[in-house]
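Re: beginner question about structure tokens

> Can someone show what the tokenized structure looks like for a real chain? I only ever see the sequence side.

Sure, here's an example I had lying around. Input first:
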Amino acid sequence: MDTMTLWHVTGWGFAALAFAALLVGFSKTAVSGANTVSLAIFAAVLPARASTGVLLPVLIAGDVLAVLTYRRHAHWPTLWRLFPAVAAGVVAGTLFLVWADDGVVRTSIGAILLLMAGVTVWRRRTAGAGDEPDAVTTRAGRAKARSYGVLGGFTTMVANAGGPVMSLYLLSAGFRKLGFLGTSAFFFLIVNVSKVPFSAGLGLIDGRSLLLDAALVVFVVPGALLGKWAVHRINQRLFEQLVIGATVVGGVQLLLR
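And the corresponding structure tokens:
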């Protein structure tokens, strides 16, 4: 029995998943947060709850490639301030997944996508008004880091949708492109790897999901290479508009499914 039969995925469905995996690689090295489109595709092709477990190893592969590309540009003081709050959010997300069935998860993912689309619109309008990265040493900065960290941990555990939350935080903290990409690369590699035991304990990662991952992860590499090539050339404003539109469509589709 092949992977597509095991998951009852059609040829078109697998092609959509392969495109989503390619987009993961692209988002990790070019436009962080674009993988919300991948999330919508995975949740549409696969059972919504199971899709989060299948997508996680694909995201980790993209994180590894992003770290290899931007490892010299990470801002570690920011990362250390975020991790405790993110851990609390991941625990809260795990407890939610214990309770939620597939329909609730699908609705939650759709709502999160629409929320993240709104967050991204707000981020683009306020991106020029951020502080410098070291502003997180103030009381207001620490409070902001905690609130974004908890929300980012919860959304990344429930729906692998922490990208827009953390993108908003890093931009509001004044990070420029390379510092943004380097810091987010290490952040998501560490957070996503830490989620693996939780996802496995919930039954979201098993031999069947890893078999599908093995077929999809090869598509992450060309996406990452394309992102590395495009990061200094892409018209990011137009691309983010397309990402927001696709995210809204995906979120509405999941809510109405």
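Each token stands for a local structural state, so reading them left to right follows the chain. The mean pLDDT is 83.
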